[in-house]
Amino acid sequence: xxxxxxxxxxxxxxxxxxxxxxxxxxxxxxxxxxxxxxxxxxxxxxxxxxxxxxxxxxxxxxxxxxxxxxxxxxxxxxxxxxxxxxxxxxxxxxxxxxxxxxxxxxxxxxxxxxxxxxxxxxxxxxxxxxxxxxxxxxxxxxxxxxxxxxxxxxxxxxxxxxxxxxxxxxxxxxxxxxxxxxxx
Length: 184
Ligand SMILES: *[C@@H]1O[C@H](CO)[C@@H](O)[C@H](O)[C@H]1NC(C)=O
Ligand SMILES: *[C@@H]1O[C@H](CO)[C@@H](O)[C@H](O)[C@H]1NC(C)=O
Ligand SMILES: [Ca+2]
Description:
Elements lengths: L1 H17 L6 E7 L13 E3 L2 E10 L1 H10 L3 E2 L5 H13 L6 E10 L2 E4 L25 E5 L9 E5 L6 E6 L4 E7 L2
Antiparallel strand pairs: 1-10, 2-3, 3-9, 4-9, 5-6, 5-7, 7-8
Bound molecules: 2-acetamido-2-deoxy-beta-D-glucopyranose (2 copies) and calcium ion.
The site of calcium ion (CA) has 7 residues, from strand 8.
InterPro entries: C-type_lectin-like (IPR001304), C-type_lectin-like/link_sf (IPR016186), C-type_lectin/snaclec_domain (IPR050111), CTDL_fold (IPR016187)
Keywords: Signal
Protein name: C-type lectin domain-containing protein
């Protein structure tokens, strides 16, 4: 115990001494690319301030997740209706109607869908009518698509994670600008 006392006093002394001098470095964090630095973002493309990759190979949900991880990203998560609409708009103006995997699933608790990237619940109200229905008790992974034959827009639906093969959307991590001020 005496050793700890000495150490504590030494640390306290240190703090007192340091508190009389300015910080040599000051670091600040800002969301996004604050200084508009030119970047190579391949293979991701920017859609309304986030970066996405559209994987057009038809794969099951797990393989889709692995494909995104290889790109140091994850299957897409729609935290806001605006983000969902931005992606829907991007696909719609290109005449796209295929299904795409998202990160959503209820593999943890049947009937409780969460975004796998964040562990948060699905807060956007974009499920297709009568979905999720866990059809034949086999559907635990969420995709976006023209779910019913008479669907007129992209909506969300649950499908089998392993026995259903569709393209997928990866979302890159958010960017952050770090500003470092130094007294030189
Ligand atoms: C970066 O671009 C945005 C949007 O064009 C602009 O509002 C902002 O002033 C720019 N920032 C810098 C540091 O040039
Ligand atoms: C882009 O994102 C902002 C902020 O989330 C949102 O208000 C806006 O509606 C989005 N724009 C489009 C085209 O989705
Ligand atoms: Ca379903």
